[in-house]
Amino acid sequence: MQNKKGRKELSYNPQITVDSDSGIIAANGVTQDCTDHHQLQPQVEMVEANSGELPVGTKTSSDNGYFSGSNLRYLERKGLDGYIPDSKQAQKHKGKKVVDSPYSKDKFDYDEANDQFICPNGDVLVRKGEYMVKGKLQYSYSGAKCSECPFQAECAGKGKKKKITSDDYEAERRRMAAKMQSEAGKEEYKKRKATVEWPFGNIKHNMKFREFLTRGIANVCNEFNLVCTAHNMKVMWAKLCRMGISLREIVGLVSGQAAKVAAN
């Protein structure tokens, strides 16, 4: 696939969705996209195909790679309670130092009803035009009285006027950012590491699966299905052992069910 630097490499991008209570992989997939931007909706749809429709309010947590306006809108329209950090929040979660300007775009309030931005000094930037960037529609906002502002040099630049670029998903981005900045949001997102990171660790470290042995997207998908199935079987076996259920009892139950089906 093509990596982020535009170079071709022999690699694939595997995806998993994990149930937080059990550690069971509820859906998986393999793509040749170098980012995860377009993988959230297929994973949700696969979970629903495997397990039934997700109830409204179901909590979902994804890393920054899935943060896109279209994904946030999809979650809202599905009624799912999503938790996805933007790039700055993701860096902070990792303990990295983030250089934060008091006049960056996120410091400007967004008035969704009137589709305008309000600067830290109280002035308003309204939509002035639109244009396409790599096939995506972008909007330009300006109109603040920057020449009268004592912070012009620090905000817009000496003798310049402030301009902000946005798209159709600004409201969804703001709502998600506010949720992720809340203490409840931070606590909810912490659960993601314990939920989805350990299955990958189990697959790579305990099961020694660090590279695909087949080639071609169809073959690799089949291979990854087998790997995820093996992980799930190990998890279920461990849970049954903790419940005190023996292999003989399990085999007896399965055999009994098979005989019942055959008799019918």
Task: Describe the 3D structure.
The protein is an alpha+beta fold and 264 residues long. 42% of the residues lie in helices and 17% in strands. The strands form 3 sheets. A 5-stranded antiparallel sheet has the order 5-6-7-8-9, with helices on one face. Strands 1-2 form a two-stranded antiparallel sheet. α2 packs across α5. The longest helix has 26 residues, at 217-242.
Offer a quick outline of the entry.
This protein has helices at residues 40-51, 69-78, 87-93, 152-155, 170-181, 183-206, 217-242, 247-263; strands spanning 13-18, 25-31, 59-61, 81-83, 109-111, 116-118, 124-133, 136-142, 164-166. 42% of the residues lie in helices and 17% in strands.
Layout of helices and strands, plus pairs?
Elements: E1 13-18, E2 25-31, H1 40-51, E3 59-61, H2 69-78, E4 81-83, H3 87-93, E5 109-111, E6 116-118, E7 124-133, E8 136-142, H4 152-155, E9 164-166, H5 170-181, H6 183-206, H7 217-242, H8 247-263
Parallel strand pairs: 3-4
Antiparallel strand pairs: 1-2, 5-6, 6-7, 7-8, 8-9
Summarize this structure as a short list of keywords or feature phrases:
264 residues; alpha+beta; 2 domains; five-stranded antiparallel sheet; two-stranded antiparallel sheet; 9 strands
| β-strand amount | 15-25%
Average pLDDT reading: 90
Number of domains: 2
Number of helices: 8
Succession of helices and strands: EEHEHEHEEEEHEHHHH
Distance, first to last CA = 49 Å
Structural class: alpha+beta
Total E-strand runs: 9
**Residue runs with pLDDT of under 50 for 5 or more positions:** none
| Largest sheet report | 5 strands, antiparallel
**Helical content class:** 40-55%
Rg (CA only)? 24 Å
Multimeric organization: single chain
